[in-house]
Amino acid sequence: MQNRVFNFNPGPSALPITVLNQIQKELLNYKSTGMSILETSHRSPEYEEINDSAIALCKEFMGIGDEFHVLFVGGGASTQFDYIPLNFLPVGGTAAYVDTGTWASKAVKEAEKIGNVHLAGSSKDLDYTYILSTSELDIPEDSAYLHITSNNTIKGTQWHSFPDTENIPLVCDMSSDICSRNLDFPRFSLIYAGAQKNLGPSGVTVVILRKDFLEKCNPDLPTMFDYRTHVNKKSLFNTPPVFAVYTLNLVLKWIKNLGGLGELEKITKAKKDIIYNLIDTYPDFFRGTVREDSRSWMNVTLRLPSEELEQKLVAKGKESGFVGLKGHRSVGGIRVSLYNGVPLEAAEKVAEFMEDFKKAN
Ligand SMILES: *Cc1c(COP(=O)(O)O)cnc(C)c1O
């Protein structure tokens, strides 16, 4: 593919080339309607088919049934930081949160504006370089829910086993690792994710919501901030982000064609192994920033011996067709984001490039 770079952008991020080609192919005339999906009513049968298909594929991949609702809403994952306590933190109640990095901290900050928050655990003591074990968490028995962030996009850590919360509903921000690996999805009461990292473009947020959890929803909420509004209208109460949901559906179909989440997980593992192997082979040059048992399969974060070398690697990378390797401005260093849309070949090629860079420097 001429002029296409290897794209490691942290979000919005790479989309599968087959998805982009299909969008291009049907952009002017969607399914013989004589118009673009961009110009199509969200009340049309064409859009209904897209909405239904995306819901069905999410359910299929996550192994969830009619005990869950699947919503596609606007506002990004950040708006969910407010939705969740507004809907599920009762007056006088307490919600437990685990603080594992930038996005988790933001979720805590929003919930504190709405009600009582109990910090069940934090890895701030070591600059968020690890994930707490279940025994390190302090979850009050009467918590309305426990909120965690499955993958910490900026710090490069990821939960590899989840706390057993028994009767306390588990709520999870999966924005940067949703549908990249097989998980026991039904154990979560609420999962949410901005689509722009693993499942599509920005503009749509996926919300997976257990029906029995929804029954505990607070009364008298503003209409648009009440989950029931969107559940009752199948995400069609107001105009949904049609083009984003259409693209999301194409990405889900692409995953289906690969063979589903099990197959995708194999690719995810192969990609992260290639980059971590570099860190393990040359630990003095490529210094991993997080504890080994907490390594993210999506965002590999590392430091080089000097900031000068880091800048040089980013610049050289860009010249050689590898973009998006700069660490988040708040942490510096290098970050290799390996979301679903990043092909295995990209991980192989960037590892070769990095190894050559090491030898030359
Ligand atoms: C990117 C990201 C967000 C923010 O998503 P928006 O859709 O931009 O609001 C939240 N949480 C995590 C874990 C993220 O990676």
UniProtKB/TrEMBL annotation:
<dbReference type="Pfam" id="PF00266">
    <property type="entry name" value="Aminotran_5"/>
</dbReference>
<keyword id="KW-0032">Aminotransferase</keyword>
<keyword id="KW-0028">Amino-acid biosynthesis</keyword>
<dbReference type="GO" id="GO:0005737">
    <property type="term" value="C:cytoplasm"/>
</dbReference>
<comment type="similarity">
    <text>Belongs to the class-V pyridoxal-phosphate-dependent aminotransferase family. SerC subfamily.</text>
</comment>
<keyword id="KW-0663">Pyridoxal phosphate</keyword>
<dbReference type="InterPro" id="IPR000192">
    <property type="entry name" value="Aminotrans_V_dom"/>
</dbReference>
<dbReference type="InterPro" id="IPR015421">
    <property type="entry name" value="PyrdxlP-dep_Trfase_major"/>
</dbReference>
<dbReference type="InterPro" id="IPR015422">
    <property type="entry name" value="PyrdxlP-dep_Trfase_small"/>
</dbReference>
<dbReference type="GO" id="GO:0004648">
    <property type="term" value="F:O-phospho-L-serine:2-oxoglutarate aminotransferase activity"/>
</dbReference>
<comment type="pathway">
    <text>Amino-acid biosynthesis; L-serine biosynthesis; L-serine from 3-phospho-D-glycerate: step 2/3.</text>
</comment>
<feature type="domain" description="Aminotransferase class V">
    <location>
        <begin position="5"/>
        <end position="341"/>
    </location>
</feature>
<protein>
    <recommendedName>
        <fullName>phosphoserine transaminase</fullName>
        <ecNumber>2.6.1.52</ecNumber>
    </recommendedName>
</protein>
<dbReference type="GO" id="GO:0006564">
    <property type="term" value="P:L-serine biosynthetic process"/>
</dbReference>
<dbReference type="GO" id="GO:0030170">
    <property type="term" value="F:pyridoxal phosphate binding"/>
</dbReference>
<dbReference type="InterPro" id="IPR015424">
    <property type="entry name" value="PyrdxlP-dep_Trfase"/>
</dbReference>
<keyword id="KW-0718">Serine biosynthesis</keyword>
<keyword id="KW-0808">Transferase</keyword>
<dbReference type="InterPro" id="IPR022278">
    <property type="entry name" value="Pser_aminoTfrase"/>
</dbReference>
